[in-house]
Specification:
The protein has 275 residues and is α/β, with parallel strands linked by helices. It is 45% helix and 19% strand. The protein is built from ten helices and nine strands. The radius of gyration is 18 Å and the shape is globular.
Length: 275
């Protein structure tokens, strides 16, 4: 698949009413990424815990920090960062539907003066070099088939000493060929990134590794909770989300869970720094 085709497919998907209703109602509506579970917390609480831990690992965030969130979704992370640390945050996201919700939530919470929402593609960032203290992304890089380009862009737009911190669903470094076909088909990709691949990309563009925290079990926890939520609310979702979408999502989640349980998948926080 050509690069621009994947971008358009991803944009169309996240702009759809089905996807918007699913992520806004089942996934929590603020953060639409994998959460960190303690056995008691909800999807919404676990998803926010991912944001909190990333913020702790990102460095000394404050009112002077200029941060860019790649694939920002509904902007939950941006609002947490702006409200908690006073950061100035630029949100870059493909979906006009999600961006509209993001802007509405920013205004409702009185944070629109700190958060700027931009529609765009993170493979070609519409920002000047040496602009950001922190480049942040949660579970968005997997959607690209030009992942090396994202690292090149990260190196370009970060200030000297700036950090690139992100989470991403990845394949295990030793993942056998062919075992992720069902997962990859769902996201229209031929392969996923891996820790080894991201380390190599960072090295090639001149970003040094600061920290890697792997939590593959949380990927399984998260998709299990989302699947459970879909099953519980299956009937009540009928007037909001098409049955075809829900049924495909349930099947897709089962593929992710099975692959994660077999240790074919990985997830965690990766942090790199520009010299």
């Amino acid at each position: 698949m050509q690069d621009n085709q994947l971008v358009e497919i991803t944009k169309e998907y996240y702009n759809s009413q089905d996807a918007d209703e699913f992520y806004h109602s089942i996934w929590g509506g603020e953060d639409i990424h994998i959460g960190i579970y303690d056995g008691k917390n909800s999807i919404k609480e676990a998803s926010r815990q991912s944001v909190v831990l990333m913020a702790e690992k990102a460095g000394a965030l404050n009112v002077d920090t200029h941060l860019l969130d790649l694939g920002s979704g509904y902007g939950g992370a941006a609002r947490y960062l702006a409200a908690t640390f006073g950061c100035k945050v630029d949100c870059l996201n493909l979906s006009a539907t999600e961006n509209h919700r993001n802007e509405e939530k920013n205004k409702a919470q009185g944070l629109d003066h700190l958060i700027n929402v931009v529609e765009g593609n993170f493979e070609a960032l519409p920002f000047n070099a040496n602009t950001y203290d922190v480049l942040w992304s949660q579970d968005a890089i997997l959607h690209s088939n030009q992942k090396f380009k994202i690292f090149q862009e990260a190196q370009r737009v970060l200030k000297p000493g700036g950090v690139f911190i992100f989470t991403d669903p990845m394949q295990a470094d030793d993942c056998p060929d062919g075992v992720l076909d069902a997962v990859l088909k769902r996201i229209h990709l031929e392969e996923m990134g891996s820790v080894a691949q991201y380390r190599e990309f960072a090295k090639e563009v001149g970003l040094s590794e600061e920290e890697v925290i792997l939590m593959p079990e949380q990927l399984v926890n998260h998709y299990t909770q989302v699947l459970h939520g879909l099953e519980i609310h299956y009937e009540s979702l009928a007037d909001k989300i098409s049955r075809e979408y829900v049924d495909k999502m349930k099947q897709g989640l089962k593929h992710w869970i099975a692959a994660g349980q077999k240790a074919y998948l990985n997830w965690g926080i990766l942090k790199f720094k520009k010299a």
